[in-house]
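Run log, item B.
One chain of 504 residues. Sequence copied directly from the ordering sheet:
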Amino acid sequence: MIKEILLPDLGEGIEGADVSEVVVSVGDSISKDETLLVLESDKASMEIPAEEPGVIKEILVSPGDNVVAGALLMKMEISEKNDSKKTNETKNTLSDLLLPDLGEGIEGADVSEVVVSVGDSVSKDDTLLVLESDKASMEIPAEEPGVIKEILVSPGDNVVAGALLMRIQGQASSYEEPYLEDIPKETVKETVKETEKKSPLDPEVSSEGFFASPGVRRLARELEIDLGIIDGSGRKGRITKDDLHNYIKSRMSMGSKVATAPKKEIDFSKWGEVETQKLTKINKITATRLQQAWQEIPHVTQHDNADITDLSAFRKKIKKSGDKEGVKVTFLPFLLRAVSIVLKEMPRFNSSLDHKGENLILKKYINIGVAVDTASGLVVPSIKNVDQKSIIQLSKELMDISSRAKEKKLKPNELTGSTFTISSLGGIGGTSFSPIVNPPEVAILGVSKSEWKPVYYKETRSFEPRYIMPFCVSYDHRVVDGAAGASFTSRLADILREKENFQD
């Protein structure tokens, strides 16, 4: 039996990836979990393994290709087994092609190219149109084979999730959203009775009353649109999908564009010798995202110092225990513990704004991203449930995740879900810096190199040598005010001063 190998969902915030290496060849016999190809996304490199043993029959991607979730990568022959999947019957009906959710932070996109024309026959996964958002270009494929009957967008149009793009005649989806006239009269009567019982605030019915299909009502609920303010063009004033999409289109605004580098090419070689070095995918995407974050988030950075003299001595004792287990105990696990304590006390720093910027989402879990410098660029793996782990457990996890980050073996889910980020440059040097917030988070901790400094004690009127760690917190000023920012750094310094906070 021939099985198609599709690219799985790569995780939150990862829209696509480039094929950096195809490990197998046509005719190769492979085992379960054997690596088939290597991908490089905007966050990390990752290996795609075989889910079961078989023989490679066809390879449909090449190094350099960009693939998205659901893309057909390979075909392989496996042993025959019962196929429990049900196939859809081909029906001579029209199916609507709607724009899917484009991912976190992408509210809309511009149609840059319509690839097909009315009357064209298309196969599954054929590109229908190309969209360009403020973050990337993307192709919209056909979900099923069919014939293009109607195209409802043109190059230059701005569309949002749920927008009607085309109508395709051919294989229909397993569930067809009926319009009101397609529903039996008895059902219509029952539906009217139900709507009369509902609150006027319910999106399904307004104070004026209206008629709309279940599909239209569902889409309106998802988009938080009151159908009562839309004039229906259908029979007896029924609100159609076209009415809803036209309303959405009339309310759309162009998304802000990220500023780009000057387009004019400069010949730097006329002033001396130069070397051109190609940026990695991670380099380029990181640059774009940092620029966007800097432009969209009103940053404030609060600087402070922490006396870690006693904690440093305590770490050396823990380090001896870790050495016996082959675990390297750095200062970073202590930072993770300290930050988790403050986040519990100040949950606003462990939150995110919703996509409209109208509500604050307070997270009951503490996952902290740790910036790791690799040969390909900076990656930020997420340490999950930091507050539930010991110093030794955190040390083991940091060793493992840092090693695999540098070897490009991180899994997609290890790069997502962070609620806060730590960027430590203490092992490199510097007295201070101002890190950029990693959205959708609202704060990030920056740590610089610790130094021995003389500290004056008024009680004894004398100076004592103390081990001082400079650090700072950058935060989104829309969520955190200056007083809260100062309280955060002050409390973190207090926690780091007391070794009792780190005894498991």
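Observations after the first pass:
- The radius of gyration is 28 Å.
- The first helix runs from residue 185 to 197.
Flagged for discussion on Thursday.
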